[in-house]
Design brief:
Elements: H1 4-17, E1 18-25, E2 28-37, H2 40-50, E3 57-59, E4 72-78, H3 79-89, H4 95-110, H5 114-127, H6 132-136
Antiparallel strand pairs: 1-2, 2-4, 3-4
Length: 144
């Protein structure tokens, strides 16, 4: 169970080192909460709090840096989970981060209505040789 103190700690970390963004996922917005730094233990703690299916990734010698630079540890959570964290952390963030979170939530909500979700499902089904009508027919069945 996540303790209140962990949420406050995470909010402070994300205010200073985090990133709230919205990437493109096949034409649909995908909210992202990400934190990156050279302190692996801090990223591991953030990952434990944020949870989800993400993994801590390591970027060694990012392009444009000198060899003596430390590795960068990165953790991100995306989609619905990221939105839930944005709502949880919103009141603890500074003005600039709150504005960014609002922008992301509006973009995500506007572009993720039921029709868009059904359209995405339809496309995936068609790639697999199925159709929405078959999915809803009694007994289902494949068009293969």
């Amino acid at each position: 169970m996540i303790e209140t103190i962990d949420i406050y700690w995470l909010a402070g970390l994300l205010e200073g080192e985090g990133c709230f963004s919205c990437s493109d996922n096949n034409g649909y917005p995908c909210p992202v909460v990400q934190v990156a730094m050279s302190d692996e233990d801090i990223i591991q703690r953030a990952a434990a709090i944020l949870g989800g299916g993400g993994k801590v990734r390591v970027r060694l010698n990012p392009k444009g840096t000198f060899e003596h630079k430390k590795p960068i540890y990165v953790f991100r959570t995306t989609g619905q989970e990221a939105i839930e964290w944005m709502f949880t952390l919103y009141s603890l963030m500074g003005e600039r981060r709150r504005a960014k979170i609002e922008e992301i939530i509006i973009t995500w909500k506007t572009n993720n209505d039921e029709n868009r979700a059904l359209e995405m499902i339809r496309k995936k089904l068609e790639k697999s040789g199925y159709s929405l009508s078959e999915l809803f027919r009694e007994g289902g069945g494949s068009s293969k």
